[in-house]
Amino acid sequence: MREITYAQAVREAMSEEMRRNPNIVFFGEDIGVYGGGFGVSLGMLDEFGEDRIIDTPISELAITGCAAGAAMTGLRPIVEIMFSDFITLAMEPLVNQAAKNRFQFGGQASVPMVLRTPGGSGTGGAEQHSQSLEAWVCHVPGLKVVIPSTAYDAKGLLKAAIRDNNPVVFIEQKLLYCTKGVVPEVGDEYLIPLGKADVKRIGKDITIITYGRMVPRCLKVAGQFSKQGIDIEVVDVRTLVPLDKTCLIESAKKTGKVLVVHEACQTGGYGGEIASTVVDSEAFPYLTAPVKRLCGMDVPIPYNRYLEAQIVPTEDKIAEAVMQLQNY
Amino acid sequence: MREITYAQAVREAMSEEMRRNPNIVFFGEDIGVYGGGFGVSLGMLDEFGEDRIIDTPISELAITGCAAGAAMTGLRPIVEIMFSDFITLAMEPLVNQAAKNRFQFGGQASVPMVLRTPGGSGTGGAEQHSQSLEAWVCHVPGLKVVIPSTAYDAKGLLKAAIRDNNPVVFIEQKLLYCTKGVVPEVGDEYLIPLGKADVKRIGKDITIITYGRMVPRCLKVAGQFSKQGIDIEVVDVRTLVPLDKTCLIESAKKTGKVLVVHEACQTGGYGGEIASTVVDSEAFPYLTAPVKRLCGMDVPIPYNRYLEAQIVPTEDKIAEAVMQLQNY
Amino acid sequence: MNMILSKTIHKELYYKMILCRKFEENAAKMFNLGKIHGTTHLCIGEEATGIGVCSVLAKEDYILQTHRGHNQSIGKNMSIKRMMAEFLGKATGYCKGMGGSMHIADFSVGSLGANGIVGGGIPIATGAAFTQRYTKSDSITVCFFGDGATNEGAFHESLNLASVWKLPVLFVCTNNLYGMSTHISKSMNISDISLRATSYGIKGISLDGNDVLSIYRETVKAKEYVLKNGPMLMVLNTYRWTGHSKSDTQEYRTKKEVDEWKEKCPIKRHGEYLLSHMLFSKEDLELMHIQAEQEIRDAVTFAEDSPEPCIENILDDVYAE
Amino acid sequence: MNMILSKTIHKELYYKMILCRKFEENAAKMFNLGKIHGTTHLCIGEEATGIGVCSVLAKEDYILQTHRGHNQSIGKNMSIKRMMAEFLGKATGYCKGMGGSMHIADFSVGSLGANGIVGGGIPIATGAAFTQRYTKSDSITVCFFGDGATNEGAFHESLNLASVWKLPVLFVCTNNLYGMSTHISKSMNISDISLRATSYGIKGISLDGNDVLSIYRETVKAKEYVLKNGPMLMVLNTYRWTGHSKSDTQEYRTKKEVDEWKEKCPIKRHGEYLLSHMLFSKEDLELMHIQAEQEIRDAVTFAEDSPEPCIENILDDVYAE
Ligand SMILES: Cc1ncc(C[n+]2csc(CCOP(=O)(O)OP(=O)(O)O)c2C)c(N)n1
Ligand SMILES: Cc1ncc(C[n+]2csc(CCOP(=O)(O)OP(=O)(O)O)c2C)c(N)n1
Ligand SMILES: [Mg+2]
Ligand SMILES: [Mg+2]
Asked: What is the overall mean pLDDT for chain C?
């Protein structure tokens, strides 16, 4: 086994799939020579050429719609939106066209495309370059939504997303791009099916359900608590839609105490979906405390680095929430 | 007291405020002679003239941004987006600009604008003219979100929204436009403060928390159950952001059983926020059953009228959910 | 030096136009009887546009249709049976009753669908044309939209994209002078929409949208042009006789204006041409009318006899396997 | 028949340009020292644009700035102390440390803010100009954006809106030939961006963006023009010397190209003009440099000595009362 970064994992997934299937094309702003806003596609232009690695004008709406149109006519496009904040410009083609075209045309269309975009704060990008908007796309029937937390997951899930026959929104985590993780050797292909959560740490006292960049943070906190004899299970949702309800519910039944953690601001966040799903399930009678949410504060992401760090769930806040559950 | 329709109530609110404050202007597609997609503004052009009732080109992004710019410089614009599905085109100025400008400019700006738009299915408008997208805007700090269910509330809340110094998304309900309700005489001004839920029916056995066009439906079901001796409290959230948590929690403590009902599709809907809020509150120990959600199915809204009617919470489904809670 | 059109083509154009006219008149009737749900947008008066353009196209050429697109559907040889069934929301309709009038699509003849979003099809068209170029096909994509749609950002971004990438797409703007109640003079500061081609360095032309022959001929040339040179903008200037949709009381225009345009009826005009050039006799045309009416009666019967879709299947097409 | 500019204005233009240059060079340094968080976009080489335009404007005239907008800020007489404090995320910064470089705003001098969204300010500008016309003020709004931004739908919709409503807004496109790594030849099929005015029936002009005097003079005329006639598009052709942002390795262009543009330095050019026209002596200019450097040192001290904002106040500005 070897270690690569999360960004490399994304690149490998795209490259392997593009080698395998000539119908995959990749659209995005400055994804060619520049390698994309975060260097994720560096080098791909050299391998695949300008016909397949396609720099676009700054036109998020058109390139997303273009990907949908290409997908409906036989290609399998990947489109990169440089920051997830810019999906605000692409919601029309994503939501009204890509997500609905199969259904509204009575099954005539399929729209196999992947919209990749980095989300999250922590880079000093401030209000318009730091949002976590996954809840929006989770609320659109016809879309699938993935947020990986490790290099291993990023690669396996992206490959599965590219092969999926539906529009998949694949949200990467800026702050994880440089983190390293173990993945199989280059020749050893693997895919991770969409719709399966992953228990990243087995525990019996409390369940933390989380995803994305909060996963390593929760794991760290869990590690600290284990020394105090509190055994935390950490479930990484990975695929937000379709949601692996069984996995979440089983864990909740086991521990009886559930904490949901995400970076996105709390009000209207996907944590509400997760928490409500657990509550209104066969796990309810097992719950020995209210299902708690610990999420980003309901504020735009500030520029100042200290404030920026404090308005999302910190290790301290996670530990505090765990203690509240423990002591409930 | 007199009876007027929900649409008239909206019109009266706008007209009264426009008479009162010359800085209110109204932008929208075909809102002048045509009276807007649903005739809500019929007659306003005659009273206020073309300088204030302003037909726009079909440019949802620009008119929303234009309203934000006008709001930042001293006016109080209302902008109508003909169907809420078209906010997909206006998310950028709404979310990245209007909602954040106060915060990201360190308090220098205020953005007193109201974006009015009709939501919901039931008119045969099919997938792209029927969505209930309130959850998106509820997840954006800086925005307030209102959905009235009666003529009385529509008028009082819209007047308050227009006077509010923040961007307010005011989602009307197509299927309620023609419903009539009692409102005070023309001279008797009233405002309903944003952020206050309304207990539309007092009960002690089960709480239904709902909003918008599901309110009359839930009230009807509640009426039927009262004959069977089941006494349902119906809470109309009215203002989704800021959410009147106290009201919801108090009701939950009283009844111990909570059903959340909305038309929007379930996954990622605002029902998750409401349910989770109730669960993770002092109401938890009083809960004698899981907080249940009954929402629209996770499908695009189909054209066929029978299917269209069945994929949202029907009276039958609401009654069934009530029974499940009752028998839990 | 007009290209000579065969009698078959003349007949096809005329027949499709009357079929479209009668189809819509019928739809309006059924609408008023409450048999059609929702709304519908008639293109009466504009038949020459979609029919003139689409009759040139091969099956492999794609079209993106508008909400006012029955002429485009019929031009592209879609089945009026399945169209009518879709209006009635039946399981045999083009979209299994899920889409209705605003979402008519027939992938088997190259229609990638009508759109309920003004301008919504324009970006999709660039993608379809991208596929055509990527796969080195010699087909093109035709993208229809209205005058009002040219004020949407989607128009701008898509024409720019198509131009930079030299995609084989013909952008066809049906300028009927209004977007709902809004006259173009209130929504743009130019009167010739083809000027908008300038921004993208592409060719733009403006045609009489009620002259089906000129539309047909120019489309033949345009198809060749876009295959070789990339996108082009073709503006067809015409008029919608009826209201925007069922509920429109048309306060925003005069009866006189409408009547003047009715004089320019594209069907009457082509009929007179056929007679004066002695391509067909009055009786020939009369027969076509009878045939068209029969086709419509058959379509209505088919639609009315068809089953409603079942709620049990509602999840089938939300996601593909 | 050039309009004659006073010595004061000549000095102002020169001083602001060197202040901007030094300010950015300093910011880059502080950035490399890790004192500035996030990213920053330098406009070195483009100083003449925002400074030439904004120096014409009154306080009551609004500007909408870009992410590459330090020249616009300085042109509009913003305080470099508070700019620097904002870069460092301090409570004394223009945005109390909440916005950073991409959100610099100073409502007190008419800057309605920089924008992190390419083209994000363009619709806002129409609204500001709407207010000006509605309140019958005789001020205008100037909206800055880059060449890349003209490919966004926001550009199209907003210019159209402004044109139809004849709003007093001057649209200023700083064409530095690139949007990040993408040369305009890859993002549009025209080389003179002012052609895009055609779509909206408005006036468009293209200027040498490194000639601060011509920019100043044309802006004087343009202000008058837009007050009377409605919007106009002014394209300033220039070049960015540095990378797009901190992390840019500039693989997409040659050093030769950059060097050629450095020869056309707007500051050097204006300096030579001042000397050759004997408006100022070498010593005068030298003094200005010294003064600018002192101003910047003061700004840095101010910024570094300022307090960080407190988490306790984080909710204060999410909503207005
Ligand atoms: C994005 C969007 N905005 C508004 C509407 C409402 N609407 C439907 S058709 C129409 C007018 C369209 O005008 P035009 O493009 O000229 O087409 P026409 O109806 O004249 O054929 C409008 C405003 C819509 N469907 N989609
Ligand atoms: C909507 C949006 N898309 C993409 C970006 C990322 N981005 C920031 S600056 C930039 C280039 C902008 O080019 P141009 O408008 O020419 O301005 P310049 O940077 O050259 O001054 C891009 C693509 C963004 N900030 N916003
Ligand atoms: Mg039209
Ligand atoms: Mg540029």
From this structure: 97
